[in-house]
């Protein structure tokens, strides 16, 4: 479904990502792990179109997407979350979800002014979709609160819901468990698995919480200093000498 | 602490003296061809010194005074009452607003010509501020050259009528669309800009339009402006004493009533009212539509908006275009009301005032913006008694407003969207 081949990203003299390859099949959770500053988020930024990669190819469903503008990539069905929650803070929770469904709505100005049947129909559908996902992540009662007033854990869940209402095929989560307490992390764990099982979404995950990564990943890619270090099933990674060395330092 | 306050208070008093004495206390007097500097009379000197003492005392006891002010209970006590149910509140609100509009329809028949004229100006500013509210309040794009689109609307009508004899009703959509086109054109070069940089480019754009109008003498008449702009007609009926255009009839003769100059003023007021209500309703609808939400999303977080598939180009251009469209409306009405326009009506100060209206009203809030437009237009008129001090009073009111209510007169209230429970 998603294939990243030999991706590299150079910032001036710094080669932040060098020859990283990645491959995600349908209904699969693939994690990217690595020490701080390893280039994980840079890989994400290249994949989601925020950066134009200096080299390599990114194929999404057989189509080359590297260097395409971010909003086009997102419309293809690759949607991401951010390391630091990026909600529309002064808008309500529902409005956050409605903005995300922009491409599903009838955005014709005249149709909207006249409230044509097609416009109403699509508006109603996206409201239902928003309601469904709010129910799913347990934020239904807060639907008309401003997103900035939610607790941190709720904001995290809202961000995932906001991605899901776009009906993506591939979800890219950048440290979704950062700042969550153990109970919330467990909920998140179940949510991500259910996204894969029930909604047929592939997930690419960057995460530092090893228990979460080992629990839910089908495969793991390890990056160190911009270069791929290892890849394989959680079990293989756990045994891998290089990975242990990179994480724990030379023994 | 006390020493610090004393020092601060003294400093403020000295600054007051230094600024106030030369401005108020020294007069230039012309004696023949010589200009002499005359000292002030005693009363002025005394009042300057009194002002300095007031400043000194206020700064000295500032803490006490401010805390005393806070302890005064606010006129609208925020009791622990349950907030009204959303749908009920919305219904009451729409009834009240409809009532106000109906009152506004009949109001001009009972008041003086001068007040109707002023009210027309207020309505023009309401249109402008509602339009700028889209760009600044909703989309978060600081536009300091908004008056350019107002000028485009006004000059479109003025020039079309001068060269092609086009009437108000034909010029109205043309002016608005041409202004929108200018908004669209300005949108392109500033797509990548944000904040301060955007403000400077739009400022430049506003000046370019004004200077162009000022210097393209062959077409626009330059600083002399364009005069003889026709008044709007009502189904071919003119409001003048005599019919100017072939084929038209005059209003007072058709209805067999005595001629009165007031008819025209009231008619213009009603046109402005209808257009202002139209502007408010259309923008209100936009705010509840995908396009309005995407403007706000762009203001809140551009990166997140893009990651969700919103195209920055489309969102920014739509905000600029729609904002400019309504400025074009206002411009056409303005040209018709004045009968004469010159580049002097479209200076930077106008942009600043419209922006001040939006900020004072509460960014993004329509009711707030309307209230602020009324206040900002009428206040200087009320303060006319104080002649040269009126701008001072106006400025002081703005400063106080920003200190005590930085969120604006009526901060924006989020739209409540009811959801159906999903099974």
UniProtKB/TrEMBL annotation, chain A:
<dbReference type="InterPro" id="IPR051120">
    <property type="entry name" value="ABC_AA/LPS_Transport"/>
</dbReference>
<dbReference type="GO" id="GO:0015188">
    <property type="term" value="F:L-isoleucine transmembrane transporter activity"/>
</dbReference>
<keyword id="KW-0547">Nucleotide-binding</keyword>
<dbReference type="GO" id="GO:0042941">
    <property type="term" value="P:D-alanine transmembrane transport"/>
</dbReference>
<dbReference type="GO" id="GO:0005524">
    <property type="term" value="F:ATP binding"/>
</dbReference>
<dbReference type="InterPro" id="IPR003439">
    <property type="entry name" value="ABC_transporter-like_ATP-bd"/>
</dbReference>
<dbReference type="GO" id="GO:0005886">
    <property type="term" value="C:plasma membrane"/>
</dbReference>
<dbReference type="GO" id="GO:1903805">
    <property type="term" value="P:L-valine import across plasma membrane"/>
</dbReference>
<keyword id="KW-0067">ATP-binding</keyword>
<feature type="domain" description="ABC transporter">
    <location>
        <begin position="2"/>
        <end position="250"/>
    </location>
</feature>
<dbReference type="InterPro" id="IPR027417">
    <property type="entry name" value="P-loop_NTPase"/>
</dbReference>
<dbReference type="InterPro" id="IPR003593">
    <property type="entry name" value="AAA+_ATPase"/>
</dbReference>
<dbReference type="Pfam" id="PF12399">
    <property type="entry name" value="BCA_ABC_TP_C"/>
</dbReference>
<keyword id="KW-0813">Transport</keyword>
<protein>
    <submittedName>
        <fullName>ABC transporter ATP-binding protein</fullName>
    </submittedName>
</protein>
<dbReference type="GO" id="GO:0005304">
    <property type="term" value="F:L-valine transmembrane transporter activity"/>
</dbReference>
<keyword id="KW-0029">Amino-acid transport</keyword>
<dbReference type="GO" id="GO:0015192">
    <property type="term" value="F:L-phenylalanine transmembrane transporter activity"/>
</dbReference>
<dbReference type="Pfam" id="PF00005">
    <property type="entry name" value="ABC_tran"/>
</dbReference>
<dbReference type="InterPro" id="IPR032823">
    <property type="entry name" value="BCA_ABC_TP_C"/>
</dbReference>
<dbReference type="GO" id="GO:1903806">
    <property type="term" value="P:L-isoleucine import across plasma membrane"/>
</dbReference>
<comment type="similarity">
    <text>Belongs to the ABC transporter superfamily.</text>
</comment>
TrEMBL record, chain B:
<dbReference type="InterPro" id="IPR021807">
    <property type="entry name" value="LivHM_N"/>
</dbReference>
<keyword id="KW-1003">Cell membrane</keyword>
<protein>
    <submittedName>
        <fullName>High-affinity branched-chain amino acid ABC transporter permease LivM</fullName>
    </submittedName>
</protein>
<dbReference type="GO" id="GO:0005886">
    <property type="term" value="C:plasma membrane"/>
</dbReference>
<feature type="transmembrane region" description="Helical">
    <location>
        <begin position="146"/>
        <end position="164"/>
    </location>
</feature>
<feature type="transmembrane region" description="Helical">
    <location>
        <begin position="35"/>
        <end position="61"/>
    </location>
</feature>
<dbReference type="Pfam" id="PF11862">
    <property type="entry name" value="DUF3382"/>
</dbReference>
<keyword id="KW-0812">Transmembrane</keyword>
<keyword id="KW-0472">Membrane</keyword>
<feature type="domain" description="High-affinity branched-chain amino acid transport system permease LivHM N-terminal">
    <location>
        <begin position="5"/>
        <end position="107"/>
    </location>
</feature>
<dbReference type="InterPro" id="IPR001851">
    <property type="entry name" value="ABC_transp_permease"/>
</dbReference>
<feature type="transmembrane region" description="Helical">
    <location>
        <begin position="346"/>
        <end position="379"/>
    </location>
</feature>
<dbReference type="GO" id="GO:0015658">
    <property type="term" value="F:branched-chain amino acid transmembrane transporter activity"/>
</dbReference>
<dbReference type="InterPro" id="IPR043428">
    <property type="entry name" value="LivM-like"/>
</dbReference>
<feature type="transmembrane region" description="Helical">
    <location>
        <begin position="314"/>
        <end position="334"/>
    </location>
</feature>
<feature type="transmembrane region" description="Helical">
    <location>
        <begin position="197"/>
        <end position="213"/>
    </location>
</feature>
<feature type="transmembrane region" description="Helical">
    <location>
        <begin position="391"/>
        <end position="407"/>
    </location>
</feature>
<feature type="transmembrane region" description="Helical">
    <location>
        <begin position="94"/>
        <end position="112"/>
    </location>
</feature>
<feature type="transmembrane region" description="Helical">
    <location>
        <begin position="118"/>
        <end position="139"/>
    </location>
</feature>
<keyword id="KW-1133">Transmembrane helix</keyword>
<dbReference type="Pfam" id="PF02653">
    <property type="entry name" value="BPD_transp_2"/>
</dbReference>
<feature type="transmembrane region" description="Helical">
    <location>
        <begin position="265"/>
        <end position="283"/>
    </location>
</feature>
């Amino acid at each position: 479904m998603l294939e990243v081949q030999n991706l590299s990203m150079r910032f001036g003299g710094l080669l932040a990502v060098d020859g990283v390859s990645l491959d995600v099949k349908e209904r699969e959770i693939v994690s990217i792990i690595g020490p701080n500053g390893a280039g994980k988020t840079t890989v994400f930024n290249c994949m989601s179109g925020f950066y134009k990669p200096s080299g390599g190819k990114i194929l999404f469903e057989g189509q080359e997407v590297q260097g395409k503008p971010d909003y086009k990539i997102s419309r293809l069905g690759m949607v991401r979350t951010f390391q630091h929650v990026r909600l529309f803070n002064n808008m309500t929770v529902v409005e956050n979800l409605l903005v995300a469904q922009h491409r599903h709505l009838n955005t014709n100005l005249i149709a909207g002014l006249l409230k044509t049947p097609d416009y109403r129909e699509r508006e109603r559908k996206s409201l239902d979709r928003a309601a469904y996902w709010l129910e799913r992540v347990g934020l239904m009662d807060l639907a008309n609160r401003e997103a900035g007033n939610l607790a941190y854990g709720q904001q995290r869940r809202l961000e995932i819901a906001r991605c899901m209402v776009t009906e993506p095929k591939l979800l890219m989560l950048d440290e979704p468990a950062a700042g969550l307490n153990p109970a919330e992390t467990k909920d998140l764990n179940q949510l991500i698995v259910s996204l894969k099982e029930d909604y047929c979404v592939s997930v690419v995950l960057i995460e530092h919480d090893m228990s979460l990564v080992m629990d839910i990943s089908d495969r793991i890619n390890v990056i160190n200093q911009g270069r791929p270090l290892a890849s394989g099933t959680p079990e293989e990674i756990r045994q891998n000498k290089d990975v242990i060395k990179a994480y724990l330092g030379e023994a | 602490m006390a020493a610090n306050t004393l020092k601060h208070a003294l400093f403020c008093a000295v600054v007051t003296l230094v600024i106030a004495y030369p401005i108020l206390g020294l007069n230039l007097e012309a004696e023949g061809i010589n200009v002499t500097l005359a000292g002030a009379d005693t009363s002025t000197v005394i009042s300057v010194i009194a002002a300095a003492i007031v400043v000194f005392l206020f700064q000295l006891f500032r803490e006490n005074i401010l805390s005393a002010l806070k302890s005064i209970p606010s006129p609208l006590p925020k009791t622990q009452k349950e907030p009204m149910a959303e749908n009920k509140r919305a219904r009451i609100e729409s009834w009240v607003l409809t009532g106000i509009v109906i009152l506004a329809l009949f109001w001009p028949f009972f008041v003086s010509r001068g007040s109707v004229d002023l009210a027309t100006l207020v309505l023009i500013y309401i249109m402008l501020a509602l339009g700028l509210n889209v760009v600044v309040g909703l989309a978060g794009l600081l536009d300091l050259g908004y008056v350019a689109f107002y000028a485009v609307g006004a000059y479109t009508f003025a020039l079309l009528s001068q060269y092609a004899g086009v009437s108000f009703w034909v010029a109205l959509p043309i002016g608005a669309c041409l202004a929108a086109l200018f908004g669209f054109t300005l949108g392109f070069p500033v797509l990548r800009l944000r904040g301060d940089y955007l403000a400077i480019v739009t400022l430049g754009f506003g000046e370019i339009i004004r200077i162009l109008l000022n210097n393209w003498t062959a077409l626009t008449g330059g600083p002399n402006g364009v005069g003889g702009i026709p008044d709007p007609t009502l189904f071919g009926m003119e409001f003048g004493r005599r019919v100017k255009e072939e084929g038209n009839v005059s209003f007072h003769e058709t209805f067999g009533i005595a001629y009165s100059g007031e008819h025209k003023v009231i008619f213009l007021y009603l046109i402005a009212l209808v257009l202002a209500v139209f502007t408010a309703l259309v923008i209100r609808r936009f705010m509840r539509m995908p396009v309005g939400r995407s403007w706000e999303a762009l203001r809140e977080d551009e990166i997140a908006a893009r990651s969700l598939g919103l195209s920055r180009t489309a969102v920014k251009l739509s905000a600029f275009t729609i904002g400019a469209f309504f400025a074009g409306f206002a411009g056409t009405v303005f040209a018709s009301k004045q009968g004469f326009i010159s580049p002097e009506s479209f200076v930077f100060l106008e942009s600043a005032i419209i922006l001040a209206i939006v900020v004072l009203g509460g960014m993004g809030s329509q009711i707030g913006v309307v209230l602020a437009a009324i206040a900002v237009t009428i206040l200087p008129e009320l303060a006319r008694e104080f002649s040269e001090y009126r701008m001072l009073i106006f400025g002081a009111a703005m400063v106080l407003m920003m200190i005590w209510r930085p969120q604006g007169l009526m901060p924006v209230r989020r739209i409540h969207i009811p959801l159906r429970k999903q099974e």
